[in-house]
Amino acid sequence: MLTLYDYLPSQNAWKVRLLLNHLDIPYRTEIVRIFEGEGQRPDFLAVNPTGAVPALRLPDGRTLAESNAILTYLAHGTPYLPSDPFGGAKVQQWLSFEQDHVASIATLRHWTLTGKLARRAPALVDRLRRVADKALAILDRELTQRPFIAGAAYTIADMSLFAYVHRADEAGLALADYPGIVGWIARVRAQPGFLGTVHPYSIDPLSGGELP
Ligand SMILES: N[C@@H](CCC(=O)N[C@@H](CS)C(=O)NCC(=O)O)C(=O)O
């Protein structure tokens, strides 16, 4: 059976839970208490050298990290990842965009929801907000032109982007300003096997501290 190394408030891990739910794949969960330093333990660094969740252990013992790499592995041979070279590469284009541009929303959301925002340098917060606003404007423009980000079909690129984009309000960014994104959120939520459960940081009393 697959093992998902998880931390429940992580939306990077949620992406993987979402795809496992869509595919109805059974798995076991191993919680990594990242704010307690468990990600830095040698046994977990052997699973993911960066110490971050999510990570996946296959039944044969091999391990894989990085949410988008895990999505790509699990979606192979399913409708969620086109098998033709161009379609597959188009999905990768948007997975790269997610890591390069949308991670700003993840950071702002984390700092906002765990009370760290006021402790951060205002110039850094401003820069992240500019990156996040630009990312949302790009997605809004694209998503008014087609139903899903990589084309007519719902793919792992949508799942990856959705994880943080649909929580952008929690990062202090007004989603209502982006009607193209709002329409896409409704289309994603309507997919069979959609996973509605999102866990708040408040379930972890230590999440107000700094990561080791
Ligand atoms: N690029 C990575 C980012 C993973 C990430 O930042 N995970 C956070 C939780 S959302 C984490 O585990 N942070 C703890 C740490 O970096 O030590 C991915 O997409 O999987």
From TrEMBL:
Domain GST N-terminal, chain residue ranges per copy: 1-82
Alphabetized CDD domains for the sequence: GST_N_4
Superkingdom classification of source: Bacteria
GO-annotated molecular function: transferase activity
Keyword Transferase found: yes
UniProtKB keywords: Transferase
SUPFAM superfamilies: GST C-terminal domain-like (SSF47616), Thioredoxin-like (SSF52833)
InterPro entries registered for this protein in UniProt: Glutathione-S-Trfase_C-like (IPR010987), Glutathione-S-Trfase_C_sf (IPR036282), Glutathione_S-Trfase (IPR040079), Glutathione_S-Trfase_N (IPR004045), Thioredoxin-like_sf (IPR036249)
Residue ranges of every copy of the GST C-terminal domain listed in the record: 84-212
PANTHER family recorded: GLUTATHIONE S-TRANSFERASE GSTA, GLUTATHIONE S-TRANSFERASE-RELATED
Protein name in UniProt: Glutathione S-transferase family protein
